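User: Is it possible to get a 3D structure for a protein together with its bound compound? The compound here is zinc ion. I've pasted both below.
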Amino acid sequence: MTHHLNIFMSGKNLGLNGLKCVLNIKLRGFHYPFYSYGSCLFFSAPQVILDVEQLPRHSARTQCPFCRQYITTDVSTKAGSAAYIVCLISILFCCIAGCCVIPFCMDRCKDVVHKCPKCRSHIKTCKKL
Ligand SMILES: [Zn+2]
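Assistant: Yes, that's possible. Here is the predicted structure of the complex:
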């Protein structure tokens, strides 16, 4: 008589979707999710974006094209052309005076400026338009 030992994955597909996020550490605006599988612990590091043209509208890890250091960009917002245009349109359509102030309060209409925290160089501006 032979004995068989069968090991089954307990109903779940492997792959990142099947992994349970056990810990989510937030550090300097980034989420570092930790996953457990058995006795192993995985953690996925935030992606380093090497092409500054691909920088998102929030702080991201990249290589500074000026000082060549790996940095997390400092972001700030400023009212960009989109905000001014929305303001202009609301004036043209004779909205109530308060309307033209609203675009300046909306981050979505603002340009996002990425700067290097090390050398203070201006890396990229993400324009709304
Ligand atoms: Zn730099």
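The first strand starts at residue 20 and ends at 27. The first helix runs from residue 81 to 92.
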